[in-house]
Structure formats: structure tokens, C-alpha cells
């Protein structure tokens, strides 16, 4: 009896470790599932938002380095976890400036900022409290991101060199997600913004 009970406890512990360690989904990410921690009151984790945000980098890239004004440009942006602990992020990313999470900044070779046309009118709505897929789990080295297609002639008025930078800002309110997720080390709305590297492209006629 004792041996059988011990084996059941051991197998349950192994299953729990495997369940927590599994990550799947899109672009190197794992979607947080309801009940995976086995505690209906949620995991007892706390996090300092500055340190959590400090683990993250925002990386951007384009499909080319040189474009004519007749072409289209694809811009990719990804949040990357460079720390040694799991960080959770809002799965929603909209190219609508701070209102949607991702803000695009364009400057010419002299460093003068250029106004960027509206990329989308999607706003960041509050999550539903029964939405258990709102958070994406990023383990060390994992990333999650999105992309946008730009018409070069609309964003870059004349031939020349231009720099691109993207700023990510989370608007996810801790008290609006399902209660069992509120103590997770996530990028909540009080986390500082995260700026990408500055990327240079060449625009020709």
C-alpha cells in the first residue's frame, strides 16, 4: 500500500513538472491555460515590473535593406525574453501607437522625426475575465511578435536613408484578467515601455 501510494505521488509530481514545462503555440510561445498550476486561487508569484521588463528586448527587422518608393516594406517586431525566468505577455499586439501596444517611429538621416500615417484603427479593448488565452508564456530565449506591411511611398516622402524604431507598451490591467493569473510575472500596464533597436533602410526613386 505504501509503495503504491508513493508511486502515485511521484507520478503526479512528474506529470505536473512536464505540464508546466510544456510550451507550444505560435512563434516560440506558450499559451497559458486555465488550471495548469493546480491552485484555483492562482500561483503565489510576485514580480517587480522594472525587472520583468528588463528581461525583455524588442527586436525589429525588415525583409530588405533597400527599397524603391514603388515597393512595399514588411516590418517585423518581436519581444524576446533574454532573462532566465519565464515572462508572460499580452498576446494582442496592434500597430496603432500606444493605444494598441506598438508605436512606429520614423526619422530621416538628419534625425528629424517624420509623422507616420495611421497603421490601424484597432484599439486595445479590456480582456474578458474568462479569457484564459490572454497571456503568452515566454521562456528564456523565446520570442513572440507580429509584422506589418507598409507602402514605401506613403511613409518615406523622398529618396534617402531613414531609421525605424518601434516602442512596445503593455496596456493589460492586472485586475481585469482572470484572478488565477494576476500574480504572474507579466508585463502589466504599469511596466515601463520597451524600445527596439534603431534600424536603417535606404529608399531610392
How do the strands and helices of this protein lay out in sequence?
Elements: H1 2-21, E1 30-31, H2 49-54, E2 56-62, E3 66-68, E4 72-81, E5 87-90, E6 102-108, E7 113-114, E8 135-138, E9 143-151, H3 152-155, E10 160-168, E11 194-195, E12 199-204
Parallel strand pairs: 3-12
Antiparallel strand pairs: 1-8, 2-4, 4-9, 5-8, 6-7, 6-10, 10-11, 10-12
How would you describe what is shown here?
The chain has 205 residues and is of the alpha+beta class. Helices cover 15% and strands 32% of the residues. It is built from three helices and twelve strands. Strands 3, 6, 7, 10, 11 and 12 form a six-stranded mixed beta sheet that branches. A hairpin with a 4-residue loop joins β6 and β7. The model is unreliable at 1-46 (pLDDT under 50).
What form results from the Cα inertia axes? elongated
Average pLDDT works out at 80
The major β-sheet equals: 6 strands, mixed
Q: Which regions contain 5 or more consecutive residues with pLDDT less than 50?
A: 1-46
| Structural class assignment | alpha+beta
Helical residues, percent: 10-25%
Secondary structure: number of strands: 12
Q: Strand fraction band?
A: 25-35%
- Cα(first) to Cα(last) distance is 81 Å
Radius of gyration, in Å, reads 21 Å
The H-and-E topology, N to C, reads as: HEHEEEEEEEEHEEE
Number of helices: 3
Give me a quick take on this structure.
The chain is 15% helix and 32% strand.
Amino acid at each position: 500500500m505504501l509503495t503504491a501510494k508513493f508511486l502515485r505521488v511521484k507520478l503526479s509530481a512528474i506529470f505536473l513538472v512536464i505540464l508546466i514545462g510544456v510550451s507550444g503555440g505560435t512563434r516560440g510561445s506558450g499559451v497559458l491555460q486555465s488550471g495548469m498550476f493546480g491552485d484555483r486561487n492562482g500561483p503565489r508569484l510576485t514580480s517587480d515590473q522594472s525587472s520583468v521588463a528588463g528581461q525583455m528586448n524588442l527586436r525589429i527587422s525588415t525583409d530588405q535593406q533597400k527599397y524603391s518608393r514603388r515597393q512595399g516594406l514588411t516590418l517585423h517586431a518581436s519581444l524576446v525574453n533574454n532573462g532566465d525566468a519565464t515572462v508572460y505577455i499580452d498576446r494582442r499586439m496592434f500597430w496603432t501607437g500606444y493605444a494598441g501596444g506598438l508605436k512606429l517611429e520614423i526619422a530621416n538621416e538628419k534625425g528629424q522625426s517624420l509623422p507616420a500615417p495611421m497603421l490601424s484603427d484597432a484599439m486595445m479593448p479590456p480582456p474578458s475575465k474568462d479569457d484564459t488565452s490572454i497571456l503568452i508564456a515566454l521562456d528564456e530565449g523565446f520570442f513572440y511578435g507580429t509584422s506589418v506591411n507598409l507602402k514605401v511611398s506613403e511613409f518615406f516622402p523622398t529618396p534617402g536613408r531613414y531609421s525605424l524604431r518601434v516602442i512596445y507598451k503593455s496596456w493589460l490591467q492586472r485586475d481585469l484578467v482572470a484572478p488565477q493569473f494576476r500574480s504572474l510575472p507579466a508585463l502589466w500596464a504599469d511596466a515601463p515601455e520597451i524600445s527596439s533597436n534603431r534600424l536603417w533602410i535606404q529608399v531610392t526613386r
